[in-house]
Every structure is written in structure tokens, then in C-alpha cells.
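User: My advisor asked me to double-check a structure prediction for Endothelin-converting enzyme before group meeting. I don't want to rely on an old file, so could you generate it fresh from this sequence?
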Amino acid sequence: MKNTLRLTTLALLMHVGCLAWAAPSSTSGLDLGGADKAVRPQDDLFRAGNGHWLTTTEIPADKSSYGAFIQLRDLSDQRVRAIVEDLARGKHPAGAVEQKIGDYFAAYMDTAAIDKAGLAPIRPLLDSIAAIQDREQLAAWLGTHVGSVSLPVPLGIEADFKQPTVNRLVTWQGGLGLPDRDYYLKKDDERMAKARAAYETYLKALAQQAGLKDATAVPRVLAVEQRLAEVQWSKVENRDPVKLYNPMTPAELAEKAPGFAWGAFFKAALLPDLDKLSVSQPSYVVAAAKILNDTPLDDLKAYLTLRTLDANASILPQPIRDAAFAFQGTALTGAKSEQPRWQKAVASLNGALGEAVGQVYVQRHFPAADKARMLELVNNLMAAYKTSIDGLTWMTPATKAAAQDKLSKYMVKIGYPDSWRDYAKLEVRAGDAFGNSERASRFDWQREAGKASKPVDRREWGMTPQTVNAYYNPTLNEIVFPAAILQPPFYNPKADDAVNYGGIGAVIGHEISHGFDDEGSQFDGSGALRNWWTDADRKAFEAIGARLVAQYDGYEPIPGKHLNGRLTLGENIADLSGLQIAYKAYLRSLGGKQPPVVDGYTGEQRFFMGWSQVWREKAREERKLQLLTIDPHSPTEFRANGAAVNHDGFHQAFKTQPGDRMFKPAEERIRIW
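Assistant: Sure, here is a fresh prediction for Endothelin-converting enzyme from the sequence you gave:
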């Protein structure tokens, strides 16, 4: 499991779908047909831009959510599918990357062969669990399967927080089958109780398929997960990089967290000579070691058996696939039918051979001119950010100078990596879906483990070019925009500048701003975790953040369920700051000229309508609950309205007045960067 836990992204956890975009009558690039003229932007910007679409569009049966991001992810998947089908028409030598892509995809798609094979492909793995005789063998099994099974102590590689030029092994918390510890701990929450019941049903189905005849097996597995959940840190606690940075040697870890054979674990995880690591949640690791030591071995073996079946459910026989969908699809997200098999195959292929596929993707779908235009946009946004920092009234000159130094050191990656990953040593066999997945996971972890305690390669990417997303990485102080997001509705070369700045401009501003949110602002321009603030400036910044927390705490996406403003603070800062910077960049681009009225909107109004339509989405209640629990992003309507309501430009563009639902007095508006 490659660790990208520190990447702060634009959007997470969206499912794919299909969506028509701009209406033919639009000359600005706005989707006028999806807007609702009966709703005033002064009352609800999100519904003014998306209201007709929201009321007339049904979420497809196989989707838990549906909207603008989903449109692009569907398009990206379709393009990858076309690449695979084109490669399948040619003849490629054994071992060629084209052969690997084709055979991997075809094997995943062949559910008839998967069903016919039954559990035979996974049986050796299940037998290896059954053969565990003692705690050292248990630790070795866990180490061997880092990256392929959700473990109580997952491992990953990332730049050392204090020495960001060196890669460091990090531990994390994990091993749960439900989305988050809250699903185990909030016993009085009816929605979560329903999810727990569905999970128990799912585990019973897995146990039956695995031949676990002991009726107490599932309750014992749930007891293991309950104990793990009780000692895990909350999502909010996991947003503090200072508390997450705990460097130590393996010997020190063994002393602090006794009861687990750390040496056998690291050796099996291909880390026999590890000099140092960082333990992200020390109290959890101590407790997890105790759980792994004092829980009956048979209980842990049953737990690993079900976790292993769950991890591989999509490439196991239909009864397991059906049970997995009933839980992971219907119970957790509200989906009514399964996602098409080909899209699941694309997702698996992207995980196994993502950059090999991406290399073809950019050749077909990302011309050099697009990269040049994006660099120009990024430079405009960076210039606007520089000017904005200079104009801050709440920050002293010393901290401003440090902020400018950090901004000047940003690394920008657009479209695709300059050097591509080598998959020569990954073996892919025709007709072996399970084996291909296992070998891909081990290949990826072997590559990751080989980086431990070695210099950081700043050329690497944390996402493939065909990924519809973007991210900021604090330890590399970089912003990254894969090719797949650089298209409508975010960026449209045929749209006017106002709409593009409200779309991709705000996306760029969002990612730049992550370097200055409550987490990213604790890292300096070299990527090191270091306090570059004066105490007074940090206190002023935190006071502004507290106001933003209070604003978002007040939103109630589901009856009785409020947003967690502390969990979503970083993304809310990035949304607000990104929108502010994009607007300034748009005004700079006008060169003092007044933009014309187009499609009935002034340039400033088109900017905010473009921002609104970027966040077009609707989701099922089960999915909303899941995201409210685990996602650091606010639901999309609150991203659209929550940032705009604090923006002076929004109030000026639409001339809001007291009594308008989105009116906010100037002295109460929250301004950050």
C-alpha cells in the first residue's frame, strides 16, 4: 500500500459516472442549461449554477455520487479502455509493456475464468495463514504482505519531515474493515449501526466461502477490529504533522512497543537493515503491538483470513464479489447496482501499471500546447499569490518574508512525469487475475521498500497522468496537476477567461494554498517541518482558522449530522484562499479593461458561476455519511457557497444586500491569504 497520506488533494473518493456538460447556447463556457434562473446567486450560488441539473438528474444506479469530477473520471476511464482495446489488436512480444497491459486487463475482465477457478488461486495464501504457529511467524506473514492486505500496522515511504531530502519508512494505523474508527465507536448512531450490521453480514459470507465453520469466528474477528478501533487516533488528530513525526530506530520501537516481533516483521517486509523510521501514531502502535501479542492466535488467523478475502474480493468468485458489493457498494455508499466490470478493470490496471498506461494517455490526449498554457496560468496565480502576501494586514514583515521565500521555491508539475516508471520486472500472466494483482502489489512494495533511507527522487509523481485530481506535497513543496484534470469543466480553451479562472484557476490556487493551510504552513520552503512564523502571526492565523471552523461546523449536510470544521479546515482554507487568489489573477489578466457581458453575466459574475459549476454533484445519503466521517473535504455545495460567502468580489459582483441568504457583512467575512 503506497503511502500518500501527506498529499493534500483537490478531491477524493469520487465514483465515476457520465455527464453532459456545456449547453450549445453557451458562449462563455458555462452550462446555462444546468443553471437555475429562479435561484438568485445572492441566495444560493451553488443552486443558481446547478439547480436545474440537481432537480432533473438522477444518480445512476451503479453510482453513489454524480457530478463534475465524476464526468471527467468517466472520460478518463473510457480513454484508458480505448488504449487497452487498441493494444489488444496488435501482437506484442512476451514481457513487453503492451503485453502486460493487455493481459492484466483481459484477466481481470474474465469473470467466467475467475468463477471457474474458485478459491484455488488464493488457497495457498489462505493456507499460509492457517500454517502460522507462533507470534514470530505471524509478524513475518504481516511483513510479507505489506501492500496487498490491510494490516493493523501499515507501512509506507515518504520524505523525512525534518530531513526532506531523505526517504523514511513510516508506520500508520489500519486493519479495519469499516471506513473509520467512528463506525465502531459511535454505538448510538443509527446510520453507523446499520453499516456495522451490514459488515457483520459480509464477514459471515466471507467466512462461509472460506470454510470457517466455527460460528464464533466472525464475532472474534469483529472483536479484534473493535480493539484496534478503540486505540486509533481520530481523523482530526491525524492532521497534526508535529504529533505524527516520531523518529526512532527499530530497536527503540521494539522497546517502546513490546510484544510484537518487529525484527521478523521488517525483515519480511524487505527492510532487514532499516536504520530509522517514523512512527506516526505512537500510542496506537504500542497498543496494536499488545493486541497482536495477547489476542489468541486463532482469532488473529481468522481475522487475517477474512481481511485477505476482502482485499481480493473483486478477483474472486461471484458469491464473494456479490457479498462485497452488498456491503461496500449498497450499505456504505447507497449504490443500487455494481459499477461496470470494465471500469473496475481500469482502476485495477491503473494501480498496477499506471504510468505505463499514462505514457500512452498523454501521447493521445495531452498536447504540448496544453502544458504551456497551464504553465502560464500557474505563473499568473503565483504572481497573484505573491502580491496577496505582501498585502496581508495580519502578518508582520518577518513572516511575510519567510512566506515569500517558501512561495518562490514551489516546484510545479503539469501533465505527466519527465521520466517514466520501469515495469520490466513485473510479471503479468494471461488468465491469472489473482496472481497478477498479487505480483503487482509486491512489485510496488519492493520498489517502495528499496527507497527507505535513500535520497528522495524529486522527479517522482504521486498520481498517474490519467488521474482526475491534483495535489500539494508539503515535503517536496510541490503542486501537481495530472493531465486528466486539465479539461472541461475545469479548463476549457474555448471558454472565456472568467470561467477558466473560476475553474482551473481556483484549482491551481487551491493547491498553492495548501502550502499555507493549517498543516502545510508548518513546513518551510525546503519541505522541512519547521516553525517559520512569529508567535504573534501564528496566533493571528489560528484565530482566523477558528472562525472558519465555526462557519463549517454550522453546516448540516444530513439531518442531525454536522460538518466537522476541524477535520475539513485545511481544505476549506485552500478553497477560500484559492478562490481569492484566482479572482485576483483574473482581474490582473484584464489589464485594467472592463470585460463584456456574456450570456447575461458580467465577467466577475461568470467567474463565480464557473466556480459554482465546478462543484456540481449530488450524492446518496449513505455516501454522504461515509464522506462526513472520513473525508477532509467539505460536501460540494458547502465548498461552493462556503468560500464565496467570504469573498468581497462575490458580494460586489452580485451586489448582495442584507436579507439575501448569502449576504455577510464585510466586517464578518473571513480573509486569509
